[in-house]
Write a structure and sequence with these properties.
Layout: H1 2-13, E1 19-21, E2 24-28, E3 43-45, E4 51-55, E5 60-64, E6 70-75, E7 91-93, E8 99-102, E9 110-114, E10 120-125, E11 131-139, E12 145-158, E13 161-173, E14 179-193, E15 209-214, E16 219-224, E17 229-234, E18 239-244, E19 250-251, H2 254-267, H3 271-284, H4 286-289, E20 291-292, E21 297-300, E22 306-312, E23 317-323, E24 329-335, E25 341-342, E26 347-353, E27 358-364, H5 369-374
Helix pairs in contact: 2-3
């Protein structure tokens, strides 16, 4: 943390300036966005070339110039116009360049639209139909919103354990947040407990829903992280296609749980309190969860080609499978990094330095290998 503090001071004093070299851009987020295990959040390129990054710790969207200069922020924590009360960092940019943010339904429960210069255009409540939060938002080429709404808490009993989870509902809302249609609904589980239901620790090797949207194709792709297939939905025709994603399902074993427990013991000093629960999960839970996560991200490029990635923590590499715009498998590559966002002419990376504990944004504009393969 001391190294990080000194680096931030140097940035503030201008001793470590933003650098622009050979058409590429590289700048530090250390002065502007503090990191934790889930922050910073989503990065997107605006229609005006600005760079937008969600900061979930301050409930705001930070805005940078195309050259990496910090400009201003929009949002902030609160309940008034343009403020976010409970937020997962979800936002998107529509065809007019407006920034559209979605808040938890049990927070402010609304969509807020900002102009590119950060002014509030309008704000309206979500017709959430008893769902609890907006997990992601995509702006369609029309005035509609495609939203993944989560909620409706579920508790299910299975083989001496109880599991808590919720629903993931992909739906289309009109330009004022009113319900139009449901695309897909599924369930997921995140906590478990014994018969007493007194403590609810997290499930090891947590599986969750991931998704991506292509404005070019008006197409949604989604899957659970443990699945070996991805679902692709053409939103114009409502045709659904489920295809292999290039990865193999990996059954969860007792050895996996043992390894996970040993890792948690080293990083969590209070873990012994939860150890009896995880020992029960080792004996009774693996048939309920079944498979380990094998995929961590879906994303489209500007042309509408789909990429599905898996991160190898040991090797610190990404295995990425690529699919054509007509959903045909193309090829696989092992990469040392993948972009946080693919723009029309630029690739954006967010790279974390474990020594300095600072994120750096790299913008690639040259026609290198990554540019050719990703685009």
């Amino acid at each position: 943390m001391k190294i990080r503090f000194y680096l931030i001071i140097l940035i503030i004093l201008g001793i470590l300036p933003v650098s622009v070299m050979a058409g590429d851009v590289r700048f530090s987020l250390g002065e502007y966005i503090l990191d934790d295990e889930s922050n910073p959040g989503c990065l997107k390129e605006g229609k005006d070339g600005k760079i937008y990054i969600s900061d979930k710790l301050t409930y705001s969207i930070r805005v940078f110039s195309a050259e990496g200069k910090y400009l201003y922020s929009m949002g902030g924590k609160g309940e008034g116009p343009g403020l976010f009360k409970r937020w997962m960092g979800a936002y998107d940019i529509d065809a007019r360049g407006q920034i559209c943010q979605v808040d938890f339904a049990n927070g402010n429960g609304r969509i807020t639209r900002f102009s590119p210069d950060g002014k509030v255009i309008d704000s309206f409540r979500i017709d959430a139909q008893k769902k609890n939060w907006g997990m992601s938002i995509f702006c369609r080429n029309t005035d509609d919103f495609l939203i993944d709404l989560g909620g409706n808490p579920i508790i299910e009993n299975h083989n001496k354990l109880f599991y808590m989870g919720g629903t993931s509902l992909f739906c289309i809302l009109d330009g004022k947040g009113l319900w139009k249609e449901t695309i897909h609904e599924d369930r997921f589980f995140y906590d478990f407990s014994s018969e007493a239901q007194d403590l609810w620790p997290h499930i090891p090797y947590l599986n969750y829903m991931i998704s991506a949207y292509s404005p070019k194709r008006d197409t949604l792709a989604f899957q659970k992280t443990s699945e070996d297939q991805v679902t692709i939905v053409d939103l114009k025709t409502k045709k659904k296609l489920r295809i292999p994603n290039g990865f193999r399902s990996t059954p969860l074993s007792k050895q996996d749980i043992d390894s996970w427990i040993e890792d948690e013991k080293t990083v969590n000093p209070l873990f012994n309190v939860l150890l009896p629960y995880y020992n029960k999960f080792r004996n009774y839970g693996i048939d309920f969860i079944a498979n380990k996560p094998i995929v961590d991200r879906l994303f489209f490029n500007h042309q509408g080609e789909l990429f599905i990635s898996q991160f190898d923590k040991a090797k610190k590499t990404y295995t990425v499978h690529k699919f054509s715009i007509d959903n045909q498998y193309l090829q696989m590559k092992v990469l040392d990094k993948i972009p946080a966002f693919i723009g029309k002419d630029r690739l954006y990376y967010m790279i974390y330095d474990e020594d300095t504990e600072i994120y750096t944004v790299e913008v690639k504009t040259q026609d290198d290998f990554f540019m050719r393969w990703m685009k």
